[in-house]
Amino acid sequence: MPYRKRRIFLQEMAAEEYDLFDSLPDDLVISILSMLSSSAGCPSDFVTVLMTCKRSNSLALHSRVIQRLLGNVTH
């Protein structure tokens, strides 16, 4: 995409306040959160993810994410 078209496209997106995070499917976000929870140094590191937005908070409480988090804490 040429620079001018890209700039206009980005300006239009900003005007609409388009959120790319909201366009991601829940399964993908859950997979990402699962990987983050298993690589967190301690549970408090992962808690900061819960505070970013309502959607990440609700998806971070998915059973698959919690199992990975608890598996990381017990090892």
From TrEMBL:
PANTHER family linked: MYND DOMAIN-CONTAINING (PTHR46758), OJ1485_B09.11 PROTEIN (PTHR46758:SF2)
Matches recorded under InterPro entries: At5g50450/At1g67340-like, F-box-like_dom_sf
Taxon lineage: Eukaryota, Viridiplantae, Streptophyta, Embryophyta, Tracheophyta
Domain of life: Eukaryota
Protein name: F-box domain-containing protein
Species this protein is from: Rubroshorea leprosula
